[in-house]
Amino acid sequence: MTMNALRDFPTVWRxxxxxxxxxxxxxxxxxxxxxxxxxxxxxxxxxxxKGLAIVxxxxxxxxxxxxxxxxxxxxxxxVSAVLIxxxx
Length: 88
Fold this sequence. Notes:
Order of helices and strands: HHH
Protein name: Caa(3)-type oxidase, subunit IV
Subcellular location: Cell membrane
Shape: flat
Radius of gyration: 16 Å
Main location: membrane
Keywords: Cell membrane, Membrane, Transmembrane, Transmembrane helix
Structural class: mainly alpha
Oligomer: single chain
Helix content: over 70%
Pfam family, one: COX4_pro
Strand content: under 5%
């Protein structure tokens, strides 16, 4: 394990807990008896939040050039929006 990995361990742990909490939220929403449109909106919103966490922390996008961050965030927002609107 490198020195950077040891320094970043608390951050990785917090992000992992955040992703786990979002996954549990999505599982809870699946049993919440929501209408299909509302369930799709909630599930895809949770997926979008998880995508943000993954690209920022695990793909090191936080330290990438601004054009790359904007491209990836724009792509994630566009795909999420298209999927949300396809269920409404």
